[in-house]
Design goal:
- By secondary structure, this protein is of the alpha+beta class.
- The chain has one domain: Immunoglobulins (Immunoglobulin-like, Sandwich), CATH 2.60.40.
- 26% of the residues lie in helices and 34% in strands.
- The longest helix is centred in the N-terminal third of the chain and has 23 residues.
């Protein structure tokens, strides 16, 4: 109650959304993807960090954070369990290809905990992880359109490396317990176009 009266909740939502935006830019830079929409929030010239970052990374002087695709190639079920389909809601809103990566954006909401997910994973039909993303991005449009969604930062943005074979990739919201995932739907279906 005190948080609502002082406006602290709005400040916290804004700062958490900003953190997710910065994390998305960091992930794009690490993956050498010129995702101007997010990188320009850190650097006026989005190409600049891509040139210098990888040199610094090789020298051990990079931005803090693990390899965004450290789990790629692992079996999803070795580290996560799949939650029942009705435990979350969400959607894949867009997808595109940039710099050899498939990029997808959407939103997700955990109905059980009434919270946004803590991350995004992408897996192919056999359950092999092929990508990851950041959750917690500002999506006031979702909150306005969906009364059951009680937070603003329910957006996500993720990166996938595609193979040259037929595959169907699913976006999976990592729920707040960090161990459960909820299928948000198909991101890519059919042969990779790269």
């Amino acid at each position: 109650m005190l948080m609502a009266m002082t406006g602290f909740t709005a400040v916290l939502d804004e700062s958490m959304g900003r953190r997710a935006l910065l994390e998305t830019a960091r992930m794009a830079i690490q993956l050498n993807v010129r995702d101007d929409e997010y990188i320009s929030g850190l650097f006026p010239d989005p190409a600049l960090p891509l040139k210098g970052y990888h040199f610094l990374w090789r020298q051990g002087l990079s931005l803090a954070g693990p390899d965004p695709l450290q789990n790629a190639g692992r079996l999803l079920m070795s580290s996560h369990s799949v939650a029942p389909p009705d435990s979350c809601m969400g959607a894949v809103d867009s997808q595109s290809a940039i710099g050899g990566m498939e990029i997808a954006t959407g939103w997700a909401w955990d109905r059980a905990t009434r919270r946004e997910p803590v991350g995004i994973l992408f897996a192919d039909s056999p359950g092999i992880i092929v990508g990851a993303g950041v959750a917690g991005l500002p999506r006031p449009d979702v909150r306005a359109a969906r009364p059951e969604v009680e937070a603003t930062n329910v957006g996500w943005h993720g990166f996938m490396r595609l193979a040259d074979r037929q595959l169907e990739l699913h976006a999976l919201a990592v729920l707040p317990d960090g161990r459960s995932v909820c299928d948000l739907g198909v991101v890519v279906s059919g042969a990779a176009a790269h």
